[in-house]
Design the sequence.
């Protein structure tokens, strides 16, 4: 197993900037928020049922969870976990949608290890902390509701933009994109093309959503459905083009 996530590294951008930790588990990577485990990922698995994402849900809550996301199914070996194979169509979007629900206050998703089980009050407090440190809180507050043009004038580095943390900023730098102004001039399609050529594993719609959101000064999950459809179509074309 790799020491760091590779093809599923982008999932870490969906988690709050503060409060989560990662550890090796079952040949994959488990993700915790404080002491609550919310996700485990498996990469490039050669065994059936061990390539994708698993989400822990206690048995008494699984019917409700499966009603929310019928695309999931209980893992045949670890039935407390709901499984999403990586080959599922729209895998990136499903992972994003599930995590967005899993991070809500008092969520039925996730569980505390038996030896560290918390009281109901403790769980509520920690879950509130999870939501209070939402994705993309790393931007300056003055950009929160500003027009994209205003952001362009004030942003000094790419990580000043919404959805862009130090990891994504580093990947953009590797692709020769050094400033917010350069990003705006190129547009998201050229930005993604340049980045994917340098970091092939970034060829996921989620990265494109983040870039589009950054250029429009909006959270990546606030994109319209039509934007998502158009983005997936472009990324599929780009993926096929780079294979040729």
Sequence:
């Amino acid at each position: 197993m790799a020491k760091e996530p590779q093809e599923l590294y982008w999932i870490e951008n969906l988690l709050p900037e503060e409060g989560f930790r990662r550890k090796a588990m079952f040949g994959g990577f488990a993700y915790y928020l404080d002491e609550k485990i919310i996700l485990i990922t498996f990469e490039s698995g050669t065994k059936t049922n061990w390539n994708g994402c698993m989400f822990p849900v206690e048995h008494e809550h699984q019917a409700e969870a499966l009603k929310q996301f019928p695309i999931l199914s209980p893992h045949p070996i670890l039935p407390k976990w709901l499984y999403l194979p990586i080959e599922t169509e729209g895998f990136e979007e499903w992972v994003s949608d599930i995590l967005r629900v899993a991070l809500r206050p008092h969520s039925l998703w996730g569980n505390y290890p038996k030896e560290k089980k918390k009281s109901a009050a403790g769980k509520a407090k920690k879950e509130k902390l999870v939501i209070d440190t939402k994705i993309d809180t790393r931007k300056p507050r003055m950009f929160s509701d500003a027009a994209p043009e205003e952001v362009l004038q004030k942003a000094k580095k790419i990580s000043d933009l919404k959805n862009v943390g130090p990891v994504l900023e580093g990947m953009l730098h590797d692709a020769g994109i050094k400033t917010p102004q350069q990003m705006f001039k190129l547009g998201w399609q050229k930005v993604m093309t340049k980045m994917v050529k340098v970091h092939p594993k970034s060829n996921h719609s989620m990265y494109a959503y983040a870039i589009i959101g950054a250029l429009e000064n909006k959270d990546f999950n606030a994109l319209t459905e039509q934007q998502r459809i158009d983005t997936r179509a472009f990324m599929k074309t780009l993926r096929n083009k780079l294979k040729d």
